[in-house]
Amino acid sequence: MSAAPLVGYSSSGSEDESEDGMRTRPGDGSHRSGQTPLPRQRFPVPDSVLNMFPGTEEGPEDDSAKHGGRVRTFPHERGNWATHIYIPYEAKEEFLDLLDVLLPHAQTYVPRLVRMEAFHLSLSQSVVLRHHWILPFVQALKARMASFQRTFIGLEVTSGHAQFLDLVSEVDRVMEEFNLTTFYQDPSFHLSLAWCVGDARLQLEGQCLQELQAIVDGFEDAEVLLRMHTEQVRCKSGNKFFSMPLK
């Protein structure tokens, strides 16, 4: 069996939270009968105070320069938590050695390619959860993941594809329970090695991928080092992480 194939690809309503204020009702003793309540007087807020909280209603400004030029798939809104289901991959030294050979070669075709900081296999698209949905969402995921066995994968899954489709099917059921977007119809399971801003598929497809594949195929023990023992599925929602162990 040859080493895992390399692929080039491009990436692809909210509720308002409010608290009921205190309201006066007729006959509740809030003012004496026959008397007209005094009108409330609003004083203007000084500019010096307003300037302390720029863009409060719209949410924080999304500065793509702080994220390597990446732009959010959906705008940031207060109370919304970007959520993603995936299988983590703990890269060994041999894997990083291979990446140290692959990336410089790929950068001769697309210089702006940047190495991934962490590696994973996605089981869902990025979706938006309201904060109060997070715990019931994770509980539903844990119930769906409880019966799955561990498995092995490479850069792109060449065996065990059906088992990963079963995992995605369970994740999709939870997504549907919360009226969220399900995964792609015909997904390709893979580990992302590098990324860049913009669509660079034309530069990567063809000769570049063939040369990178040759490097992988010729790398010592490539078939072994590109396998991964999958022990858990993770859910990242905002800055919170949840782990669902597999049997």
Automatic annotation (TrEMBL):
It comes from Cebus imitator. It holds the Pfam family HVSL. Its EC number is 3.1.4.-. Residues 1-68 are annotated as: Disordered. Residues 20-31 have a biased composition (Basic and acidic residues). It is found in: Nucleus. GO terms for cellular component: nucleus. The lineage of its organism: Eukaryota, Metazoa, Chordata, Craniata, Vertebrata. GO terms for molecular function: lyase activity; poly(U)-specific exoribonuclease activity, producing 3' uridine cyclic phosphate ends. GO terms for biological process: U6 snRNA 3'-end processing. This is U6 snRNA phosphodiesterase. Belongs to the 2H phosphoesterase superfamily. USB1 family. Its main location: nucleus. The gene is USB1.
